[in-house]
Amino acid sequence: MFDFGTALIVIGGLLGLVLLGVHVAVALGISSAVGIYLVTGKMRIVEATVASTAAEALRDFTFAVIPLFMLMGEFIGRSGAITDVYNGINRGIRRLPGRLAIATVLGNTIFSFVTGVSIASAAAFSRIAYPEMKAFNYRRGFALGAIAGSSCLGMLIPPSVLMIVWGILTEQSIGRLFLAGVLPGILLASLFLGYIIVSAIMNPEVVGENRSGSQQREAAADRVEMSTGQFLSSMTGVFGIILAVLGGIWFGIFTPTEGAGAGAALALLFAMTKGLTWPQFMQAVYAVGKTAAPILILLFCAALYSRTLAMTGVTTAIREYFISSGLEAWQVLTVILLIWFILGMVIDSISIMLLTVPIVEPIAVAFGFDRLSFAIVGILAIEAGLLTPPFGLLVYTVKAAIEDPEVGVQEIFLSSIPYWGIMLFAAILLIAFPQIANWLPETLM
Amino acid sequence: MFLIKVTDRLTKLLMILAAAWAFILCFFILADIIFRALNMPLQGTKEIVANSVVMIVFLQLGFAVRSGSMLQADFLIDAFNPTLRKFIVVLGLLLGAAFFLFLMKAGIKPAVRSFANGEFDGEGALRVPVWPARFTIIFGSGLAAFNYLLLAVIEAFGLSDRLKFR
Amino acid sequence: EEITLRIGSGHPPGVVYAGLMIDYFQPELKRRVEERTDHTINFVEGYSGSIVKVTEVLEGVQDGIIDIGGMCYCFEPSNLPLHAFQVMMPFGTMDPVQSLQIAQDVYAEVPYLTDVFPQKFNQVLLSRIADGGYNLGTSFSWEKLADLKDQKIAGAGLNLNWLKYAGVSPVQSSLATAYTEMNTNVYEGWIMFPSAWVNLKLYEPGPYYTLIGFGSMTWHGLTINQDTYNELPDDVKEILHEVAADYEEQTGIVNQKEYARLVEELRELITVTEIDPAVREAWAESLKDWPQQMADDLEGQGLPAKQVLNLVLDKAEDRGYNWPVRYEIK
Ligand code: NA
Ligand code: NA
């Protein structure tokens, strides 16, 4: 029986705890325990539910995909190959305005095909591209905006932890979601490039023109020392791993988890040929332990919470409320997008997904949205939150990685605005043309 | 102090152990793919990996808590005055301790039951026992609860310099 | 008095027995209780694993996470190993109604099968649930048993053993990943009932469905938490058992109808072939030592396995079924 008071405590309690800075996993756990107690009145049942969920929710082959894809990204990120790719692109497009920023976007697009988390992209390109752009007198904000903004591609282009979580939550094929993200990812990258080129032409000062002599430019352009052979071997390695892993998933050799496992192993071998050192190897393994465990714990607590919602009947009640509300489909979608964008300002993207997708996805399906493009739209809207204040994970990652005390967080937030603006625009394009997401999966799978 | 030194060591050791284990899994999976391609499928890979996920996560939980990696939204309380902020943070950490203590206690009965009944995954294939994962949950959440308490004490008495996690 | 019951299963409503819980058991119980008593029933639904996953139902009911749960014994190999007895006797009847009758006969003579629920798992068995018959769907066409040799074929749990003896490479899998794994050639075939072949679109990667007739299994159950049960008023208890008995019959009848309908649907979509009786017999012959092996194993755990398996043979024959190979259990 649906009880409004219980629902209010379970949902309001959770939001209150999260906003007061209680760890999201703990907030989910505590409000679930309270909710189950209110529904059943028996501490024994609360205990049994919590313990059973802890043992069963994560005991699944699929969940291994998260740390394994992270491991793959870490190995490649630390191999030096991405620096080579970045420098190579950079050389190849010498005549374009804003080429360092363009190379950042293009390099990030390629790196996105091997990393599952955006923070890895943000950290890597802060180290690789920022010193370059700084040397070329780019306006700091513009440079960092390009790094933070294009890092978002990491979670939109497969592999992506957000897609994996979405697939797990909605019981969809992760391989199909991966395919659905490719074209929107390329679309987004093109929009970013367009923005950079237009800015560089309209306002050359942001890319260092008029602030430095052209002599210095030419000299600095050849500053980078890298043989063509080195560039080619890095490109071959990175593309080889992309083809092996994503190709293997799409063309019938293995499941995403297996792809991730094989990819991590291949990435390690590749990184070793590139001279990965023992400390770098340890750092990679350590970094994955540090980021994967909190996400997986969050997944367990979210599973507990979604069970609580089912036990209290809230999920059904909200869905029925929306369906009987008489709202138009586009109004429902606007409400959902707004909720995501606002939540994105204060909580991290995976938590948002865990909190909202189990409720929102059935509503969207009931209103006739197709599941694949809705997933990509959701990922875009939630990802935009990574760039918005006050909690913008990518912005903080960039800030931490550049180690430049002169740059303030506000500056990065400010120059990221165009990027999340473009992401919301891309989301609207996808709503209008769902084929952008559906075409590849329909053609290839 | 000595106790804290010991648990910090343990926290870190478990984290590294679990990280190494996660790393080894990727070769395990690779082997599975290769053997399958040779038409000699290995038995039990999925069950072992599935149970490993639970164990890895709960072995790393203590570290996630102690190192401050648990995800949170602290923008609102950062705007509060320091006393109120401290009070709320300590309360939040105590809630963390309470939840994982609760999970630890709740996990004992089903873990013992699982051990006694010989619960396993993988009927028809390699039988992988489930009880190690269940006992890891008890142990891992116990350590997490302890670390939450420790963080609460550190926060309450401003001991962050003396009890730094290195 | 208003009675609230949390009811659910790990399976989605698309699976016949879970669908019948929603469309038959729940409304019938509600209606009859309201008609004949002063009580009303409210259900909080938890299907598709939204409260308990398929592997958690027995424990979930035991601990009261849900009050009434529908479960497959296939996920309880350590707690209820003997309850999968029909699986240990492959090539039994393909008629779900008959399969249910055989199971009812066996349960009637072996009290352990019913009593273990309250004695060990704090719950009461309300209904036994029949299931559609198992066949073999593949991505390639085949005729003789030798054609299957060294092919990778999937099964879940105990029925994986039906494959070991035919010389195929058995792969352990689950329904959730079936489509992708078939599609990506992780394996080339699945031991599967027609409903899954149609509803999960397995006919796309697997356009050959061979009616082998491994048998229809009555190896699901509907149970209620013992404490919840004890708290129910006597008149409600009586209606509960009555509705549960009707639901039990429904699972046989509906699965029987569905099986016929779905095989027809498959015929329209893909190549459906009837297995040559000689091949079926050869397959059964290759498995003839396995029931004995299972019986010895379970007897070792102190379970009345020999009695149960022999009863399955006898009761099937009493109901007019002819085994292609009559297994012997000593
Ligand atoms: Na990616
Ligand atoms: Na944000």
TrEMBL record, chain A:
<dbReference type="InterPro" id="IPR010656">
    <property type="entry name" value="DctM"/>
</dbReference>
<keyword id="KW-0813">Transport</keyword>
<feature type="transmembrane region" description="Helical">
    <location>
        <begin position="372"/>
        <end position="397"/>
    </location>
</feature>
<feature type="transmembrane region" description="Helical">
    <location>
        <begin position="101"/>
        <end position="130"/>
    </location>
</feature>
<feature type="transmembrane region" description="Helical">
    <location>
        <begin position="329"/>
        <end position="360"/>
    </location>
</feature>
<feature type="transmembrane region" description="Helical">
    <location>
        <begin position="174"/>
        <end position="198"/>
    </location>
</feature>
<keyword id="KW-1133">Transmembrane helix</keyword>
<keyword id="KW-1003">Cell membrane</keyword>
<feature type="domain" description="TRAP C4-dicarboxylate transport system permease DctM subunit">
    <location>
        <begin position="12"/>
        <end position="436"/>
    </location>
</feature>
<feature type="transmembrane region" description="Helical">
    <location>
        <begin position="417"/>
        <end position="440"/>
    </location>
</feature>
<feature type="transmembrane region" description="Helical">
    <location>
        <begin position="284"/>
        <end position="305"/>
    </location>
</feature>
<keyword id="KW-0472">Membrane</keyword>
<protein>
    <submittedName>
        <fullName>Neu5Ac permease</fullName>
    </submittedName>
</protein>
<feature type="transmembrane region" description="Helical">
    <location>
        <begin position="231"/>
        <end position="253"/>
    </location>
</feature>
<dbReference type="GO" id="GO:0022857">
    <property type="term" value="F:transmembrane transporter activity"/>
</dbReference>
<feature type="transmembrane region" description="Helical">
    <location>
        <begin position="142"/>
        <end position="168"/>
    </location>
</feature>
<feature type="transmembrane region" description="Helical">
    <location>
        <begin position="60"/>
        <end position="81"/>
    </location>
</feature>
<feature type="transmembrane region" description="Helical">
    <location>
        <begin position="259"/>
        <end position="277"/>
    </location>
</feature>
<dbReference type="GO" id="GO:0005886">
    <property type="term" value="C:plasma membrane"/>
</dbReference>
<feature type="transmembrane region" description="Helical">
    <location>
        <begin position="6"/>
        <end position="39"/>
    </location>
</feature>
<dbReference type="Pfam" id="PF06808">
    <property type="entry name" value="DctM"/>
</dbReference>
<dbReference type="InterPro" id="IPR004681">
    <property type="entry name" value="TRAP_DctM"/>
</dbReference>
TrEMBL record, chain B:
<comment type="subunit">
    <text>The complex comprises the extracytoplasmic solute receptor protein and the two transmembrane proteins.</text>
</comment>
<keyword id="KW-1003">Cell membrane</keyword>
<keyword id="KW-0813">Transport</keyword>
<dbReference type="GO" id="GO:0005886">
    <property type="term" value="C:plasma membrane"/>
</dbReference>
<keyword id="KW-0812">Transmembrane</keyword>
<comment type="similarity">
    <text>Belongs to the TRAP transporter small permease family.</text>
</comment>
<feature type="transmembrane region" description="Helical">
    <location>
        <begin position="48"/>
        <end position="66"/>
    </location>
</feature>
<keyword id="KW-0472">Membrane</keyword>
<dbReference type="Pfam" id="PF04290">
    <property type="entry name" value="DctQ"/>
</dbReference>
<keyword id="KW-1133">Transmembrane helix</keyword>
<dbReference type="GO" id="GO:0015740">
    <property type="term" value="P:C4-dicarboxylate transport"/>
</dbReference>
<dbReference type="GO" id="GO:0022857">
    <property type="term" value="F:transmembrane transporter activity"/>
</dbReference>
<feature type="transmembrane region" description="Helical">
    <location>
        <begin position="87"/>
        <end position="108"/>
    </location>
</feature>
<keyword id="KW-0997">Cell inner membrane</keyword>
<dbReference type="InterPro" id="IPR055348">
    <property type="entry name" value="DctQ"/>
</dbReference>
<feature type="transmembrane region" description="Helical">
    <location>
        <begin position="12"/>
        <end position="36"/>
    </location>
</feature>
<protein>
    <recommendedName>
        <fullName>TRAP transporter small permease protein</fullName>
    </recommendedName>
</protein>
<feature type="transmembrane region" description="Helical">
    <location>
        <begin position="135"/>
        <end position="159"/>
    </location>
</feature>
<dbReference type="InterPro" id="IPR007387">
    <property type="entry name" value="TRAP_DctQ"/>
</dbReference>
<feature type="domain" description="Tripartite ATP-independent periplasmic transporters DctQ component">
    <location>
        <begin position="26"/>
        <end position="153"/>
    </location>
</feature>
<comment type="function">
    <text>Part of the tripartite ATP-independent periplasmic (TRAP) transport system.</text>
</comment>
